[in-house]
Write a structure and sequence with these properties.
Layout: H1 2-23, H2 53-57, H3 71-91, H4 95-117, H5 122-138, H6 148-177, H7 184-197, H8 199-223, H9 232-254
Helix pairs in contact: 1-3, 1-4, 3-4, 4-5, 4-9, 5-6, 5-7, 6-7, 6-8, 7-8, 7-9, 8-9
Length: 257
Amino acid sequence: MVDFFIFILGICIGSFLNVCIHRIPREESVVQGRSKCTQCGKQIAWYDNFPMVSYLVLRAKCRSCGKRFSFRYFLVEFLTGFLWLYLWKLCGPSPLFGAGIVLFSILVSVTFTDLETGYIPDKLTLPGMLVGLGFSAVFPSLLQQTFWAQGLMRSCVGLLAGGGILLLLGLAGNFIFKKETMGGGDIKLLAMLGAFLGIGKVLFVFFMAPMLSVPFALYTKLIKKEETMPFGPFIAAAGALAFIYGDYFLANYFYGY
């Protein structure tokens, strides 16, 4: 019963994330105004606004104009519910679960916003940095510390390391290739992850994200004949892996014990 409740709560948050993904890049309020069809502009009735269920019942079409809704709406809701349930099974009722659902919800928003618009809004990453710092201070055990000041210090170092690494890499790339090679949104995203994860795991993200992106980069370059692709989703995916499996990889492949 608890598992079902966690999943339902997760898909409801996923519905809100869909609002953020659509409205934040357009500088619209995420708390005011009813949801509307993006095609005809008609408000969606409350009985057509149940997460996942309405999408299936309406067969992914607007009741008013008949135009199809993007599959992204269903995917974000299901993915958020699945991730919340997975974290619950993994962490149980703990500070780690609380930090995880906040972080993963932000990462879902970042991923789909970057895929659709090509940029990562500060309205997602900057508050995320503050939340990461706050969690680390209130629950220093998240970063293997005992006192709040130690947890906060580790979080600050992770934030500075994550943002600083990509910033220096981007500046070097700009100098070498004479064009922008690293977006500011990517830098802030890795800084946010550093605030949640600490320096060890954010370094794991730094090395893992490019590895995850290689097949997609080759497809984009060779098949689609495009020069650029969003990098944020790969940073987000590596961040999720670091949150769940980072301790294992650091212990077995980096520290050697």
